[in-house]
Predict the structure.
Amino acid sequence: MKALILSIGDELLIGQTVNTNASYIADKLTEAGADVKKVVTVGDELDEIVTDIKAGLKNYDIVIATGGLGPTHDDITREAVLKAFDTRLVLSETVLEDIRERFRKYNRQMSPVNESQAMVPETAEVIRNEAGTAPGFWIEQNKKYFACMPGVPHEMKLMMDNFIIPKIRSLKKSGGTVSKRLNLLTTGIPESTLYQRLIPLEEIIEDAKLAFLPNVYGVKMRITATGANEADADEKLIRIEQRMRSVVGRFIYSRAEEELSVVLGRLLKERTLTISVAESCTGGLICDEITNISGSSKYFERGIIAYSNAAKVEILHVDEDLIAAKGAVSEECCAEMAKGVRAISGTDLGLSITGILGPTGATTTKPVGLTYIGIADSEKVVVKKFNFADNRINNKKRATHAALELVRRFLLGIQIEP
Amino acid sequence: MKALILSIGDELLIGQTVNTNASYIADKLTEAGADVKKVVTVGDELDEIVTDIKAGLKNYDIVIATGGLGPTHDDITREAVLKAFDTRLVLSETVLEDIRERFRKYNRQMSPVNESQAMVPETAEVIRNEAGTAPGFWIEQNKKYFACMPGVPHEMKLMMDNFIIPKIRSLKKSGGTVSKRLNLLTTGIPESTLYQRLIPLEEIIEDAKLAFLPNVYGVKMRITATGANEADADEKLIRIEQRMRSVVGRFIYSRAEEELSVVLGRLLKERTLTISVAESCTGGLICDEITNISGSSKYFERGIIAYSNAAKVEILHVDEDLIAAKGAVSEECCAEMAKGVRAISGTDLGLSITGILGPTGATTTKPVGLTYIGIADSEKVVVKKFNFADNRINNKKRATHAALELVRRFLLGIQIEP
């Protein structure tokens, strides 16, 4: 099934808005087994949109359009659909009731403009909007398919997930096979090492497809398995995951696209453990990540951003002589920081980090990127050395992720060294 | 000058990569006065790329392509250019020397594959790559223009800024008018209020165009002025900026697309002032923003993430009875936090924040979003009350920005209340 994505809106052509809708749709379509061949972005110009819809349906099996379905004068996608499919508007009672209900719920006055959004192309099946007033449309013609959705990302996403993807899966089902996807999120291991450990690959993934998607936080492994039906594809994914975990399991922190701070927060809550943090080089990013999670006050007690040596000495009680002898960026100082923040906070765990994240700050013996991360509990303190080789902002992110991962492994008793 | 942007690469069609290159190019082209009519994204398929280049040059004045210029087998844009323009490859000594120089600089071994990147289409003008090995190309044919650049964002951006935009400006110059753009970054004022204060708009902006571009941090005002030449457009922009500043000047923190943390850092350095921070609800994000700037250790001394009441009392010396009486989210507690962090750090300024950023934590008298931000110097402490009405993550960002802005206004002696 060859697909074209048609993005509509002047804001995309002047560079005001990044087209994240297209990549969301492309990702979902690919997962559902469709083959996205082209993305076309055009402005709010009627003739251009009509031409692109017609050309799209001629050259591809399905065209998915977004944008231009709002209630204002420059929203002309609905009109373009009428022209492209030579149909007319009819009132949809379902949509009218959806819109009325939405206005009742928010206690707002409906205008005639809103009511007019209940007028839909006669040949279209309505895609109801769970998060806004403009409905989407689905049209089938000569074994080709056309969908259009509003450009508001969260409205579009609900329509993709709840209507279009199931529709495409059911269309494909009649054709034969079904594809399903699993994402395993790893951190602390380079893409090349991950790959080497998975050799011989075909014994592990059978005939499934495996993509390595690296970013600053780690490598996502995307496995796409195809089966005779959903259960068949699911079973294959489970077998593959088990085999992958047997060789690189300790690097996998999520199979549900969860952020590491979510995974770690759940671990701490399950074990009713508390944590405090002493940061130097990351400058607050570790605390920020931890507190992005609602409910983190249950396990996060305090953080000390000990940027100056004075702060390390005065608040964390790191020995002044130790800093003079070993430097603030040292295994010894890092250990003292972890023990210190734990002691003053009365938490179960103390996490610490000290390093040189650049671009300045390097010395003859300590290069940019050198970083120590430490974790202390009531019995011991563990410090691990890292070298980050990216720019300042990315080094902060990498170091933060490495720190959260160190805590996760410490709690799970997973080997910390690679 | 009608433009088409052609983005090339399979990674864009499977949703792995968001097409930020297209929005960067669209923004720059629009600023230079070109009219972007369409963005087309295709995969690494030779015939498709050739077809799109030819169609683009037929229907538009200029086609700007990115991607597929690397040294591996799936990089086929150069081959497509040869086919589309019916030309052949010749060796560019300039490019070869650029590549050699790059390998010398990084002390790496050159491979024949890298050398082959010095082969360029005979009819093309080379766009030198200041940040990588693959050159870009510029081709003129029958008064139409074609450019292609690597897809690596920072390589592409250098080529856009240093070659393509000047080229387009010089092409347009012969045609008549010149457009120039100014971005004024504001914060702490809603789009609607900003708009009202600028009425009557035509007396302020003359015949220029003004766009309000809001995001979570504030509203960017983008002014595009057109003149007979560059100097003429520049003069118009200066007049407009002066008039705008006379009505909304105190909300403008940058005219150079600088982040607020950069502006604030410069202010602190110029005045040789130091700052410490006591954060509750923002959980480290303020310290993180401040320390994103290289050299921030010159003015940032320490931060206390006093998430628990115990931390507020033990480290910042906030009175326990005050917290019991007024609550941790109160003007009084906020003032004590600012004074406390300043006192223990010995800095010139102490910044504090306490609030409820949601989704949980509201009480009968204190709703989600209620936040106090305080700033203390040797003479006084100022506390301002805010209500943020977004989700948790965005509230953290909004509150952080409001805190940095409060310090900026405090230092400049600008009125703090709207």
Chain A touches chain B through 68 residues (CB under 8 Å). The radius of gyration of chain A is 27 Å. Chain A has a mean pLDDT of 93. The first strand of chain A starts at residue 2 and ends at 8.
